[in-house]
Amino acid sequence: MGVFSGYPDDLAIQLWIGARGVHSLCFLAAGLLIHSRPNARSLLAVFTLVTTVLLCSIFYWRIFPRCYVEPDGLTSFKRISEYVICLVLLAAMAMLWVHRKEFDHHVLHLLLLSLGTTVVSELAFTTYESVYGLANMLGHLLKIVAFYLIYKAVIETALVRPYNMLFRNLKDSEEELRVTSLRFHQMVDEIPDGVLVVDRGGVVRYMNPAAEALFETKSNRLVGRPYGRPLRAGTMTEIQLPRSGGRTTNVRMRVVKTAWDGQPSYLVHLHDITDQARPDPVPSDASPTGQVNPADPGGKALPQGDIPKEP
Asked: Boundaries of CATH 3.30.450.20 in the chain?
């Protein structure tokens, strides 16, 4: 076309090798720095420096190695450069796969397809003998496909499904929180001691199966209702829970601070110590059922409020 006169016939191939080298290194760097926050000005300075040195080596210093010589065809430098570019792209694909959880599945598959197509394209550019040959044309067509896949992965996805890209990390955090909450419930449901979660307003928010057995009621009958006993974090007291048939259960209650659904609450741990308790003489003012009068200064407090029982 006569745009750049006085330069070797392989000028376009030299520019191609330089551009593809920068392209492959960018994908590799993106995979290596995926958890970093590089400074934008520093990145711009590095790109400016690399591009300037590359262009000067081709147009000003003219020290960039020859890539195509008539009638011999491709030079060894050109072939080796293409193989190195392919290896860098394969390394970039490996980094993407290692960090696959950081990407939307649709975007990840398109990026991997694009890089894989680019690798095949670069390999095609190592086999042609003529710049008008079939292999050269195939390489360019595959490059178009690779760029189209990049467009689908980044540009179109950002325009059509922007919230999928913007809030993917939020969705992942919500899923991790859901799994953590599920594991917590499974763990607490299995322990033999009773566990209650009571909010600062005194309303029961959670009750495990062991607590259901202590209170002889189902959680759906107590959750959402007042606990009926004042709680203070950092305290440990012994209480008596009335049972059916006039029996009582001695329980050691420990209260600590916690958070439930983002709200400050109390975690109430109830440990049955009935088998450990020694029988004490029955006070003269004890009730016929054997429960100590709450007004007795030397007695143990009884649960306040009515706890619903199973009919």
From this structure: 187-272
The whole-angstrom separation of Cα 183 and Cα 81 is 52
pLDDT, residue 208, reads 93
Tokens of 161: 């499904």
Query: How far apart, in whole angstroms, are the C-alpha atoms of residue 100 and residue 294?
Result: 62
Rounded distance, CA 309 to CA 311, Å? 6
Whole-angstrom distance, CA of residue 272 vs CA of residue 241: 10
pLDDT digits (tens, 9 = 90+) for 25-56: 999 999 998 888 888 899 999 999 999 999 99
pTM of the entire structure? Answer: 0.58
Other CB atoms within 10 Å distance of the CB of residue 61 = 10
In the CATH hierarchy, which fold is given to the domain comprising 187-272? Beta-Lactamase (3.30.450)
Q: What would the pLDDT profile of 11-23 be if each residue is shown by its tens digit?
A: 999 999 999 999 9
The answer to whether 234 touches 254, Cβ cutoff 8 Å, is no
> Tokens 């309303």 map to which residue?
203
Q: How far apart are CA 53 and CA 22, in angstroms?
A: 12
* Burial environment of residue 184 by CB neighbours within 10 A (0 to 12, 13 to 18, 19 or more): exposed
